[in-house]
């Protein structure tokens, strides 16, 4: 299916592009230095601040979240939220220019441009208003785009709706007024001070080794303080204190160390960087 011929009803775009990416044959690696910037959109309205109500936060669902995410490289605006309220959540999209492709090194079909989704030859769609988007919360006041897969030659598959994705390249992350960066979930967990279950009702076994076998230490529920010590593949070694109320250990609380699985076989993530930190 040719992305240029889509009507860009959002569901059709999402399904078509996901299908194209899935069936595309492997392509020869292309070095970033050879990648030309596609022609930028012309005659756009002014930069659009995305409508938050039209953006699904995938961290509140059970959807798989791929291997990582893209967010702004400079997060200083999070330190002064009152002064930078327009950039919080998904507001930073007003400052980015990101070309999108149907396949790695394939046909260019549009842009994420200053708060708009701009398909080639089609009217611009205001993110969150004309086009429902899907993002993921990486910090309490920040949403990013999930990255479903990456290639050694720098191509990244970006999820932008609950069912749709397209490709971009790391060499394009510095276009626009705001540079972007690609981070992996295991790096986020490695650098987190505390973890929490992605869903409040979740619970998980604490094990003596990073493997599914008869090595159970205890069952960890959401009344626990979970501190990451190291990440190894789909497992994280943690220090668990329980029971706690907020950051306060309750009478009889115990602290134990062991391994918990943070990512399932289907790519679903069960452990998450805690929104509220102790200390």
Helix content, binned percent? under 10%
Please trace the helix and strand order, writing H or E for each element. Answer: HEEEEEEEEEEEHEEEEEEE
Mean pLDDT: 85
Structural class, by secondary structure, is: mainly beta
Straight-line N-to-C gap: 53 Å
How many structural domains in the coordinates?
A: 2
Q: How much of the polypeptide forms β-strand, as a percent range?
A: 35-45%
Uncertain residue ranges: 1-33
Q: What's the total helix number?
A: 2
The rounded Rg comes to 20 Å
Q: Can you summarize the main beta sheet?
A: 7 strands, mixed
Question: In one word, what is the shape?
Answer: elongated
Count of strand segments: 18
Task: Give a structural overview.
By secondary structure, the chain is mainly beta. The chain has two domains: about 5-185, no CATH class; about 190-275. The chain is about 10% helix and about 35% strand. The strands form five sheets. Strands 1, 2, 7, 8, 9, 10 and 11 form a seven-stranded mixed beta sheet that branches. A four-stranded antiparallel beta sheet has the order 3-4-5-6, with no helix packed on it. It is elongated and about 65 Å long.
């Amino acid at each position: 299916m040719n992305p240029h011929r889509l009507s860009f009803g959002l569901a059709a775009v999402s399904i078509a592009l996901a299908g194209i990416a899935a069936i595309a044959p492997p392509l020869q690696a292309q070095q970033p230095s050879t990648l030309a910037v596609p022609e930028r959109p012309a005659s756009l309205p002014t930069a659009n601040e995305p409508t938050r109500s039209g953006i699904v936060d995938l961290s509140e669902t059970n959807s798989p979240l791929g291997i990582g995410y893209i967010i702004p490289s400079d997060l200083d605006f999070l330190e002064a939220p009152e002064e930078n309220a327009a950039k919080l959540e998904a507001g930073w999209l007003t400052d980015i220019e990101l070309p999108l492709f149907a396949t790695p090194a394939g046909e260019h079909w549009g842009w994420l441009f200053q708060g708009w989704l701009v398909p080639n030859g089609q009217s611009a769609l205001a993110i969150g208003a004309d086009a429902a988007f899907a993002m993921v919360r990486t910090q309490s006041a920040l949403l990013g785009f999930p990255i479903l897969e990456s290639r050694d030659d720098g191509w990244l598959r970006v999820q932008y709706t609950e069912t749709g994705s397209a490709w971009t390249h790391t060499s394009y992350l510095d276009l626009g007024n705001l540079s972007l960066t690609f981070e992996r979930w295991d790096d986020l967990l490695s650098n987190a001070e505390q973890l929490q279950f992605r869903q409040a009702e979740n619970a998980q076994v604490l094990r003596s080794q990073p493997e599914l076998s008869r090595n159970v230490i205890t069952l960890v529920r959401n009344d626990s303080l979970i501190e990451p010590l190291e990440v190894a593949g789909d497992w994280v070694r943690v220090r668990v204190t329980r029971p706690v109320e907020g950051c306060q250990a309750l009478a009889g609380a115990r602290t134990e160390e062991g391994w918990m699985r943070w990512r399932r076989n289907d790519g679903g993530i069960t452990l998450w960087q805690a929104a509220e930190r102790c200390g």
